[in-house]
Design goal:
Blueprint (H helix, E strand, L loop, with lengths): L1 E6 L19 H17 L5 E4 L3 H8 L6 E2 L9 H8 L8 E5 L3 H10 L13 E10 L2 E10 L7
Parallel strand pairs: 1-4, 2-3, 2-4
Antiparallel strand pairs: 1-5, 5-6
């Protein structure tokens, strides 16, 4: 199974009057989302299932990709890594899954799957971490980081 983690792009800061879930992307965030969407569109299989947090900044990040997606409350800010992995059906999904979400749970998932000696990886805003599994032998599954892409590296 392939599990692709896409952290939302840069969003406006929170405030006392602006709920966290209503924060919009900044102009820089829109550029980040567009660059990563270009890269993802060139690399994602068409069969990829896409699940997105209901927060506005994740929906705006995903909108740049122009593919069908499903909003899941299980991916809201504050969700646990276990809840998100269950929503993605890891590791049993037959199709690749792209999660558009938040720290800290994306970093916790990355650490759990590829660096179990640490509690969390720092996934920067707009970055994509592509985690894959490979069957080596009947009972031996290898989980590895297939790709890590940042908007600064995308040439569009």
């Amino acid at each position: 199974m392939d599990l692709i983690l896409w952290r939302h792009a840069e969003a406006e800061p929170g405030s006392l009057v602006l709920p966290d879930t209503e924060r919009k992307l900044t102009p820089k965030g829109v550029r980040q989302a567009n660059k990563m969407a270009h890269w993802l569109d060139s690399n994602l299989p068409h069969s990829c299932r896409i699940i997105v947090s209901p927060a506005l900044r994740t929906r705006e990040t995903m909108a740049a990709l122009e593919r069908k997606f499903k909003i899941l409350p299980e991916l809201s800010p504050g969700a646990s890594a276990d809840e998100v992995l269950a929503a993605a059906n890891w590791p049993n999904s037959r199709e690749p899954v792209l999660i558009v979400g938040h720290q800290p749970y994306l970093g916790q998932i990355a650490a759990r799957l590829i660096a179990p000696m640490q509690q969390e990886c720092a996934i920067r805003k707009g970055n994509v971490w592509w985690i894959s599994q490979k069957q080596r032998e009947e009972d031996d599954v290898e989980t590895y980081l297939k790709a890590l892409m940042t908007p600064d590296l995308v040439v569009k």
